[in-house]
Amino acid sequence: MKVNMFKRKRFTLKRKGFTILELIVVMAVILVLSSFLVPKFNGYREKALKVKAIDTGRQIYTAAFVSRMESTDVYSEDSIKDAAKELVGIENITVANSGKDNIDINYIVDKKEYTLEVKDDSYAIKEKSGSQIYPTIAT
């Protein structure tokens, strides 16, 4: 039996961890996949701002209705402002066209102006541009 003394042993290096190229490829894939989700998140943000404006309008309507009940069934600008401040915590509202059954209340949510139009026992919320956001109108 012949033994080759000059036979080289092959040393295999064991890799530990990932190479920088593999990490860059994984990060690129994650960035591409996350870029598909960004438009969805923007849509959800707009929807949340709209819901916040509607909720604030409902709270102001409740405060206005409470002030009407306390002041002999007449909407009064001062009593509405006081009730809104006390019940809702909103100070920057303006009241226009106050009367027995109709009133317009302007308020600001997230730097956008909205109008709460109260007529009889119903109400509508409109953006400054005039488009109605609550109740939604079927087209």
Layout of helices and strands, plus pairs?
Layout: H1 20-35, H2 38-70, H3 77-88, E1 93-96, E2 102-109, E3 112-119, E4 122-127, E5 132-134
Antiparallel strand pairs: 1-2, 2-3, 3-4, 4-5
Helix pairs in contact: 2-3
Describe the model.
- By secondary structure, the chain is α+β, with helices and mostly antiparallel strands.
- The chain has helices at 20-35, 38-70, 77-88, and strands at residues 93-96, 102-109, 112-119, 122-127, 132-134.
- Helix 2 crosses helix 3.
- The radius of gyration is 32 Å and the shape is rod-shaped.
- The model has no long low-confidence stretch (mean pLDDT 85).
- This is Type II secretion system protein.
- Keywords: Membrane, Transmembrane, Transmembrane helix.
- Pfam families: N_methyl.
- It comes from Clostridium brassicae.
- The count of β-strands is 5
Report the β-strand fraction as a percent range: 15-25%
Computed structural class: alpha+beta
Order of strands across the widest beta sheet? 1-2-3-4-5
Distance between the termini: 95 Å
What's the average pLDDT? 85
Largest sheet descriptor? 5 strands, antiparallel
How do the SSEs run, as a string of H and E?
HHHEEEEE
Helix content: 40-55%
Uncertain spans, ≥5 residues at pLDDT below 50?
none
* Number of helical stretches of at least 4 residues: 3
Rounded radius of gyration (Å): 32 Å
- The best one-word shape is rod-shaped
Transmembrane segments: 20-38
Keywords: Membrane, Transmembrane, Transmembrane helix
Protein name: Type II secretion system protein
Organism: Clostridium brassicae
